């Protein structure tokens, strides 16, 4: 008998390019600095690079169809004819320009709404379904990419998101109906798309159904059988791909589906393997983490795969856990990191390194571990070094967490007592006004920062420039007659990066970009080691700001959950532990601020909702440790110190008990866009502490009218006792210009004064 071959494949690849080439080309195209054909050409070169990079790693199939000019779910809306009718476009003959209008809006129509792709930081464009939505197949996107890759001599496996996940991710618009009812119309359109793909001569088609990892209603789960019975009539084999969580609860269903293979995410949910070991078709084991930056321990991976291969033989496939879209492109370009943190560099793997790891796994399975001994030894050595590194496992951090005082996360007294003590010294009018922290990040500020980073501006001059900004911000607020002032955050590039740079245990990459949406990429900090705070981070800025005014200055920190959520987090200890480490480090800052006389301190947690696990059964555990971490970050502070928090742009209704359990003295929260609807939920829940619902949208330069703000404030006053109501914008003002900011805040303050007079 010959050697049993293990097939390797990729579920999807980053699209924007190693140097964000696609982003820059798109943006130039949007500015009309680049012709359409040039954009198309650049994209074609990128696709070829992506495919060649996959092929160079010896995969049996390169992924095609996943490349997109904006979003793969938008591509699917086009392919199924389900683009929003309100644009008046013909999905069969959509121009590139129109495609971008769908994504970015135009003069007449707002853009298709965006939301997070499962629990990643990628955002997809939410399909808009109406009761009368009609679908129409347009397989061009897939067919073209298949042809292009095949012309390069590559063996391809087209990738498309499946109909149930597509429907699930959409939203019902217009008259009430259930989008599930559209399934019967959608499936034949999928059949037509798949037939067109199969006609290109492909052996396998990967159909992604990550919705299976969510809590799907029974009706939706039950539909898989019938849908895939129809789809499997296509003249190609179907690999049904699941990822981001366990699908073990659907094992019986999945094993019975008439598809030819199944992909499982064995990084997120390794335990689900046991439910599928007796699967009788191709089992694709997702063993290389597709959404972080850490190198795998390849021996450990093989310890799982070798016995599996003994059972499955050639039916075992290996792959990354999910699309590599969520990892940066190439570690090799991070020469600075390599010099500065050589040990850390050895523990990392970006997309190109991950496909390399996949190749080692495949070779080990096909030829035995000895064939790749050097690579395996290297992987082992890196894993061992990381496990025992004193640079990242600091005894004093573990000890401090283990020995926190009893009830460390509880304030000394209940809210009622605290707020009385706070009000006594704060002496604020009713409906106190404040802002969320940042003031306009002017060109001037950004130029100063850039010059400082390039060494063209000395530290002294840079800091002097920032102090000047702070003084300006303070004077503006005094003139506006705001009650609780902020320093404006001029010195901060980004609310997470700023703290990451000052905390130990964080590192930064130069090109570690991942797509957030469209042409937008983010470069998250890397939390690689135990977190400590070597020196105070914000105290001298806040102190300086306070020294300029007799009014109260609010200190401004980013909360532990948000710092965690917007970083690449180490995977060798639980996220909850990392979060608590950050919290404890922040608590030192809170106490230092307090000592310096800053006794109103805001701890921002806009990302708390984003951390929610995909399955509801796991919510409580998360909310428990996230809440504890938030509370720990002000541990030990005095009762008369007022802790604020801020949240925005999330669905908060279903986590209100957890938000209340944060026990912040004041929460400021974005509400203006929903006409204060969110407030109803807070009221129904009987939210106990002070609350500042946002009274105007900060996304627009438009100055709200006094009537609009008055309407919102009256609405708030109807349901919240005036003693507990604050007045503030929805969120930070850093993206605004100064002129509109002053005008907007002026209206806010004027209306507040009018209502105050009425209430007096
Ligand atoms: N304090 C931050 C700011 O004002 C909060 C930003 C946010 O909520 N995302 O910019
Ligand atoms: Zn906000």
UniProtKB/TrEMBL annotation:
<comment type="pathway">
    <text>Amino-acid biosynthesis; L-methionine biosynthesis via de novo pathway; L-methionine from L-homocysteine (MetE route): step 1/1.</text>
</comment>
<feature type="binding site">
    <location>
        <position position="116"/>
    </location>
    <ligand>
        <name>5-methyltetrahydropteroyltri-L-glutamate</name>
    </ligand>
</feature>
<feature type="binding site">
    <location>
        <position position="604"/>
    </location>
    <ligand>
        <name>L-homocysteine</name>
    </ligand>
</feature>
<keyword id="KW-0808">Transferase</keyword>
<feature type="binding site">
    <location>
        <position position="648"/>
    </location>
    <ligand>
        <name>Zn(2+)</name>
    </ligand>
</feature>
<feature type="binding site">
    <location>
        <begin position="436"/>
        <end position="438"/>
    </location>
    <ligand>
        <name>L-methionine</name>
    </ligand>
</feature>
<feature type="binding site">
    <location>
        <begin position="436"/>
        <end position="438"/>
    </location>
    <ligand>
        <name>L-homocysteine</name>
    </ligand>
</feature>
<dbReference type="GO" id="GO:0032259">
    <property type="term" value="P:methylation"/>
</dbReference>
<feature type="domain" description="Cobalamin-independent methionine synthase MetE C-terminal/archaeal">
    <location>
        <begin position="431"/>
        <end position="753"/>
    </location>
</feature>
<feature type="binding site">
    <location>
        <position position="489"/>
    </location>
    <ligand>
        <name>L-homocysteine</name>
    </ligand>
</feature>
<comment type="similarity">
    <text>Belongs to the vitamin-B12 independent methionine synthase family.</text>
</comment>
<keyword id="KW-0677">Repeat</keyword>
<feature type="binding site">
    <location>
        <begin position="20"/>
        <end position="23"/>
    </location>
    <ligand>
        <name>5-methyltetrahydropteroyltri-L-glutamate</name>
    </ligand>
</feature>
<feature type="binding site">
    <location>
        <position position="604"/>
    </location>
    <ligand>
        <name>L-methionine</name>
    </ligand>
</feature>
<dbReference type="InterPro" id="IPR006276">
    <property type="entry name" value="Cobalamin-indep_Met_synthase"/>
</dbReference>
<feature type="binding site">
    <location>
        <begin position="520"/>
        <end position="521"/>
    </location>
    <ligand>
        <name>5-methyltetrahydropteroyltri-L-glutamate</name>
    </ligand>
</feature>
<comment type="function">
    <text>Catalyzes the transfer of a methyl group from 5-methyltetrahydrofolate to homocysteine resulting in methionine formation.</text>
</comment>
<dbReference type="InterPro" id="IPR002629">
    <property type="entry name" value="Met_Synth_C/arc"/>
</dbReference>
<protein>
    <recommendedName>
        <fullName>5-methyltetrahydropteroyltriglutamate--homocysteine methyltransferase</fullName>
        <ecNumber>2.1.1.14</ecNumber>
    </recommendedName>
</protein>
<keyword id="KW-0028">Amino-acid biosynthesis</keyword>
<feature type="binding site">
    <location>
        <position position="566"/>
    </location>
    <ligand>
        <name>5-methyltetrahydropteroyltri-L-glutamate</name>
    </ligand>
</feature>
<dbReference type="Pfam" id="PF08267">
    <property type="entry name" value="Meth_synt_1"/>
</dbReference>
<keyword id="KW-0862">Zinc</keyword>
<feature type="binding site">
    <location>
        <position position="670"/>
    </location>
    <ligand>
        <name>Zn(2+)</name>
    </ligand>
</feature>
<dbReference type="InterPro" id="IPR013215">
    <property type="entry name" value="Cbl-indep_Met_Synth_N"/>
</dbReference>
<dbReference type="InterPro" id="IPR038071">
    <property type="entry name" value="UROD/MetE-like_sf"/>
</dbReference>
<dbReference type="GO" id="GO:0003871">
    <property type="term" value="F:5-methyltetrahydropteroyltriglutamate-homocysteine S-methyltransferase activity"/>
</dbReference>
<feature type="domain" description="Cobalamin-independent methionine synthase MetE N-terminal">
    <location>
        <begin position="8"/>
        <end position="311"/>
    </location>
</feature>
<keyword id="KW-0489">Methyltransferase</keyword>
<feature type="binding site">
    <location>
        <position position="489"/>
    </location>
    <ligand>
        <name>L-methionine</name>
    </ligand>
</feature>
<feature type="active site" description="Proton donor">
    <location>
        <position position="699"/>
    </location>
</feature>
<feature type="binding site">
    <location>
        <position position="646"/>
    </location>
    <ligand>
        <name>Zn(2+)</name>
    </ligand>
</feature>
<feature type="binding site">
    <location>
        <position position="610"/>
    </location>
    <ligand>
        <name>5-methyltetrahydropteroyltri-L-glutamate</name>
    </ligand>
</feature>
<keyword id="KW-0486">Methionine biosynthesis</keyword>
<keyword id="KW-0479">Metal-binding</keyword>
<feature type="binding site">
    <location>
        <position position="731"/>
    </location>
    <ligand>
        <name>Zn(2+)</name>
    </ligand>
</feature>
<dbReference type="Pfam" id="PF01717">
    <property type="entry name" value="Meth_synt_2"/>
</dbReference>
């Amino acid at each position: 008998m010959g050697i049993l071959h293990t097939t390797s494949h990729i579920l999807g690849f980053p699209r924007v390019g190693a140097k964000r080439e696609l982003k820059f080309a798109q943006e130039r195209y949007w500015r009309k600095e680049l012709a359409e054909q040039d954009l198309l050409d650049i994209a074609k070169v990128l696709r070829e690079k992506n495919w060649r990079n996959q092929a160079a790693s010896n995969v049996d199939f390169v992924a095609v169809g996943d490349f997109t000019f904006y979003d793969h779910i938008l591509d699917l809306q086009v392919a199924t004819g389900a683009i929003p009718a309100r644009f008046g476009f013909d999905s069969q003959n959509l121009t590139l320009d129109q495609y971008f209008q769908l994504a970015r809006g135009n003069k007449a129509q707002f853009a298709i709404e965006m939301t997070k792709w499962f629990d990643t930081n990628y955002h997809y464009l939410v399909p808009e379904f109406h009761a009368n939505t009609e679908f129409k197949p347009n397989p061009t996107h897939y067919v073209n990419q298949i042809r292009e890759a095949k012309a390069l001599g590559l063996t391809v496996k087209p990738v498309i998101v499946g109909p149930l996940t597509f429907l699930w991710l959409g939203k019902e618009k217009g008259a009430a109906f259930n989008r599930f009812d559209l399934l019967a119309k959608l499936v034949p359109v999928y059949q037509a798309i798949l037939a067109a793909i199969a006609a290109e001569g492909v052996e396998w088609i990967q159909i992604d159904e990550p919705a299976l990892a969510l809590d799907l209603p029974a009706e939706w789960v039950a539909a898989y059988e019938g849908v895939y019975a129809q789809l499997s009539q296509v003249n190609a084999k179907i690999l049904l791909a699941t990822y981001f969580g366990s699908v073990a609860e659907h094992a019986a269903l999945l094993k019975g589906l008439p598809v030819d293979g199944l992909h499982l995410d064995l990084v997120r949910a390794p335990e689900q393997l046991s439910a599928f070991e007796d699967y009788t078709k191709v089992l694709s084991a997702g063993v290389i983490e597709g959404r972080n930056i850490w190198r795998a321990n390849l021996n450990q991976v093989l310890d799982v795969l070798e016995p599996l291969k003994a059972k499955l033989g050639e039916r075992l496939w290996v792959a990354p856990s999910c699309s590599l879209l969520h990892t940066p492109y190439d570690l090799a370009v991070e020469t600075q990191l390599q010099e500065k943190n050589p040990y850390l560099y050895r523990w990392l793997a970006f997309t190109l390194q991950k496909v390399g790891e996949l190749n080692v796994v495949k070779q080990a399975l096909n030829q035995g571990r000895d064939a790749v001994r050097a690579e395996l030894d290297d992987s082992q050595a890196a894993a061992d070094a990381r496990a025992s590194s004193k640079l990242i496992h600091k005894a004093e951090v573990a000890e401090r967490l283990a020995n926190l005082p009893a009830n460390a996360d509880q304030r000394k007294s209940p809210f009622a007592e605290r707020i009385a003590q706070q009000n006594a010294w704060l002496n604020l009018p009713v409906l106190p006004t404040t802002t969320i922290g940042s003031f306009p990040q002017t060109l001037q500020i950004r130029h100063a920062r850039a010059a400082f980073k390039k060494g063209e501006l000395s530290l002294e001059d840079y800091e002097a420039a920032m102090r000047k900004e702070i003084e300006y911000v303070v004077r503006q607020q005094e003139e506006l007659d705001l009650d609780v002032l902020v320093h404006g955050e001029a010195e901060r590039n980004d609310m997470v990066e700023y703290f990451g740079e000052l905390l130990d245990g964080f590192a930064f990459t130069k090109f570690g970009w991942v797509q957030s949406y469209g042409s937008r990429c983010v470069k998250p900090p890397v939390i690689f080691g135990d977190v400590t705070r070597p020196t105070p981070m914000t105290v001298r800025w806040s102190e300086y700001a306070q020294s300029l005014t007799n009014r109260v200055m609010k200190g401004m920190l980013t909360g532990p959950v948000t710092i965690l959520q917007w970083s690449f987090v180490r995977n060798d200890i639980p996220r909850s532990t990392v979060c608590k480490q950050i919290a404890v480090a922040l608590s030192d800052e809170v106490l230092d601020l307090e000592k310096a006389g800053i006794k109103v301190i805001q701890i921002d947690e806009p990302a708390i909702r984003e951390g929610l696990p995909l399955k509801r059964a796991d919510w409580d555990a998360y909310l428990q440790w996230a809440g504890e971490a938030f509370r720990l970050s002000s541990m030990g502070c005095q009762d008369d110190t007022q802790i604020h928090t801020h949240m925005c742009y999330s669905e908060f209704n279903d986590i209100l008990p957890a938000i209340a359990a944060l026990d912040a003295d004041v929460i400021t929260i974005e509400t203006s866009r929903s006409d204060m609807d969110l407030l109803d939920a807070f009221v129904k829940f009987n939210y106990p502490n002070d609350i500042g619902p946002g009274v105007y949208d900060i996304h627009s330069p438009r100055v709200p009218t006094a009537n609009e703000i008055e309407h919102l404030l009256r609405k708030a006053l109807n349901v919240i006792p005036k003693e507990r109501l604050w007045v503030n914008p929805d969120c930070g003002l850093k993206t605004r210009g100064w002129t509109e900011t002053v005008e907007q805040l002026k209206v806010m303050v004027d209306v507040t004064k009018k209502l105050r007079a009425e209430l007096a």
